[in-house]
Write a structure and sequence with these properties.
The complex is a heterodimer of chains A (358) and B (263). Chain A is mostly helical. Chain A is built from 15 helices and four strands. In chain A, a hairpin with a 2-residue loop joins strand 2 and strand 3. The two termini of chain A are 15 Å apart. Chain B has ten helices and ten strands. In chain B, the strands form two sheets. In chain B, strands 6-7-8-3-9-10 form a six-stranded mixed β-sheet, with helices on both faces. Chain B has a four-stranded antiparallel β-sheet with strand order 2-1-4-5, with helices on one face. In chain B, helix 3 runs parallel beside helix 6. Classes of the chains: A mainly alpha (358), B alpha/beta (263). Chains A and B meet through helix 7, helix 8, helix 9 and helix 10 of A and helix 2, helix 3, helix 4 and helix 5 of B. The structure holds adenosine-5'-diphosphate (ADP) and magnesium ion (MG). The site of adenosine-5'-diphosphate has 11 residues of chain B, from strand 2 and helix 1.
Chain lengths: 358, 263
């Protein structure tokens, strides 16, 4: 009953095209943000930080990135893990190479470097599409991980081949390294996610976003009405890789603190992010978050209930999760390509008309 | 009936265009011009090369021989999006809308050659990007009013019925505010009422905005009603060119087309 557009008339085109056109939505989003910034930091503990909040934030950025490329621009990529690795290693090399550089800039620059790498690996998309492009990006996934294993310069010749993040702080508060508190790492990551979620929304609703979607929906017609395919595709690769690079840098620098490339950035990560956007919703900012939340929370929830509650063996629960996710992927690919975000939208539409559906 | 209308210089001339695909000669030595402000129809049986001709004009096909003059300049080999920027817009025989986008976004995409805010302004939105967006939105809303598609503004075009999709596609082409508008069978598959609407829109666009239009159409009565001059193609060759009355009474044309395939 409260969920209404009525009495909420749009009198200008600016009001009509705002991000949350319904007042109720604006209030909810504002409340969530206030809560996330001002309430959660006081209650966060190690468990919530490491198992739920940080992974959710980090994977949300990766999902946003892949959704820009795949969901908005229609270019399938299986290279997400490799691009996250680029972000992570860029973060490591910049941090150790320029100890005085502020960590905020380090992370932004890591995104920038990943964007450049993304453009290079995006070049084949000008020639090939669909399945063949997926295979090409898969090759980049394996190449990048191989590279970071193979070339000692990337891991500063450390004996273990691992990279470890030194301590860095913002305004005197440590946000990386073992001294960083859960609230500090959380707030630091949250800030990136919120800022870049709004940027993603802005990029996708204007000229650039339309040129991506035009290429996705019908590339030949897009070019004929004036969308330069080269610019559209490469900008999608660049922006997408930027987000994935940010995510990789936070994943390594803030969340894990130390990584080994084969394990941390393997092909399973590429699929994980792909599943997130399929389940959450292709071509939806909100869906990227829903998908990330779903894929992060599901294993935690199942572990708590089935292993903790029923005392089932862990590997059995693991397999159970695989099956469930597999089934959901098939469901969404076949029945609802726009994912949970679309189911939510439909529910809202029904709610808006309730109790008089006709 | 239209022979009393007066037009300017040619906005487009094609000279001796020949186009073939492997062994298939789609166009053979075609020349004609389109005058500023006129409605030029291209007719001919299926497979005559009409769509290929439009594809040459907007740079999707590159003819083996011949030249295209547009807006007073000899055109080099350009990519289709560069030609769109020069001021040629079109619709397609098989609707080529962006199915996942709303009507509004499809029309806004039609104006993409006129939008310039760079990626940093767009990321920020407030300022240049928003201003540009609102300015173009206003132009697009005028087209939405003109085509009477206000009610489907926010509907994803994939959900619209065929006739409306054709109309949205016209809207997307109009949004470009091009110098030359190419329409490939804008009325194909429409019922009588939809055809009348479409004719009205085409005439009004030409009349109100002075847009030069080249259109392909099968329905001879439509062509006779709205075209200023008509080109007739058959098997890739030009077999007629002139005012509708002349063309209608031309013996070659009657033999090749009107008598045989009047669908
Ligand atoms: N891309 C293409 N590849 C090969 N043959 C083509 C292509 N486009 C058109 N043709 C051929 O050119 C001829 C003219 O086609 P078209 O221009 O579509 O005719 P119309 O629009 O008058 O029906 C046909 O024989 C068609 O098969
Ligand atoms: Mg045709």
């Amino acid at each position: 009953m409260f969920y209404r557009e009525s009495g909420d008339f749009k009198t200008s085109y600016a009001a009509d095209q705002q991000t949350f056109p319904i007042r109720f939505d604006r209030i909810v989003v504002a409340l969530i943000l206030v809560c996330a910034f001002l309430v959660v930091p006081f209650f966060i503990n190690d468990y919530w930080e490491k198992s739920i909040l940080l992974p959710f934030l980090v994977w949300s950025l990766a999902a946003l990135g892949l959704n820009i490329l795949t969901g908005y621009c229609g270019q399938v990529s299986l290279g997400t893990g490799g691009f996250m690795a680029v972000g992570a290693y860029a973060c490591y090399k910049l941090t150790t190479g320029f100890p005085d550089l502020n960590i905020i800039f380090v992370i932004l620059l890591s995104g920038g470097i990943t964007a450049l790498v993304g453009i290079i690996f995006g070049l084949p998309s000008l020639r090939i599409k669909g399945f063949y492009l997926a295979v090409a990006t898969l090759a980049s996934q394996f190449f990048l991980v191989w590279l970071f294993n193979k070339v000692p310069w990337f891991y500063n010749y450390s004996a273990s081949g691992q990279i470890t993040m030194p301590e860095r702080s913002v305004f005197g508060t440590a946000v990386t390294g073992s001294a960083a508190t859960p609230s500090a790492t959380y707030l630091f990551s949250l800030l990136f996610v919120v800022v870049f979620a709004f940027i993603a929304r802005n990029l996708t609703r204007g000229r650039l976003g339309r040129s991506w979607m035009a290429i996705r929906d019908m590339d030949i017609a897009a070019e004929i009405i004036g969308v330069p395919p080269l610019q559209a595709k490469l900008s999608a690769f660049a922006v997408s890789s930027f987000y994935i690079g940010l995510s990789g840098a936070l994943f390594f620098g803030v969340y894990l603190g130390a990584v080994e490339p084969t394990e941390a950035f393997g092909i399973d990560k590429s699929f994980l992010v792909l599943f997130m956007i399929i389940i959450g919703g292709l071509g939806s900012i909100f869906g990227s978050f829903v998908g990330a939340a779903f894929m992060v929370l599901l294993p935690v929830l199942f572990k708590n209930i089935m292993v903790g509650g029923f005392g089932w063996p862990t590997d059995m629960v693991q397999h159970f999760i695989f099956m469930l996710v597999g089934g959901l992927i098939m469901f969404f690919l076949i029945v609802e390509p726009h994912g949970l975000a679309q189911l939510w939208r439909v529910t809202k539409e029904k709610l808006r008309l309730w109790p008089f559906p006709h | 009936m239209n022979s009393t209308r007066k037009f300017g210089d040619p906005i487009l001339s094609v000279n001796n265009i020949s186009l073939s695909f492997g062994g298939v000669k789609a166009l053979t030595n075609i020349s004609f011009d389109i005058l500023q402000g006129e409605i030029r129809a291209i007719i001919g049986p299926n497979g005559a090369g009409k769509s290929s001709m439009l594809n040459v004009i907007n740079g999707f096909y590159h003819p083996q021989e011949g030249e295209v003059w547009f807006d007073g300049k000899l055109r080099g080999s350009l990519r289709p999006y560069e030609i769109a920027r020069q001021g040629i817009a079109r619709t397609f025989q098989n609707i080529a809308l962006f199915k996942g986008m709303s009507t509004l976004d499809n029309l806004m995409t039609g104006r993409i050659t006129k939008m310039h805010a760079n990626i940093f302004w767009q990321a920020l939105w407030k300022g240049k990007a928003e201003k540009e967006e609102l300015m173009h939105r206003e132009r697009v809303e005028r087209i939405i009013d003109f085509l009477e598609i206000q009610a489907i503004r926010k509907t994803p075009v994939g959900r619209l019925p065929y006739g409306l999709q054709k109309r949205v596609e016209l809207g997307r082409a109009l949004a470009a505010e091009s110098k030359l508008l190419l329409l490939d069978e804008p009325m194909a598959g429409m019922n009588l009422e939809e055809k009348e609407d479409m004719c009205r829109f085409i005439l009004e666009v030409n009349d109100q905005f002075g847009t030069t239009i080249a259109l392909i159409e099968h329905d001879m009565s439509v062509v006779m009603d709205i075209a200023d001059r008509v080109i007739v193609l058959d098997y890739g060759k030009k077999i007629g060119d002139g005012y509708p009355d002349e063309v209608r009474n031309d013996k070659d044309v009657i033999d090749a087309y009107l008598g045989v395939a009047h669908d």
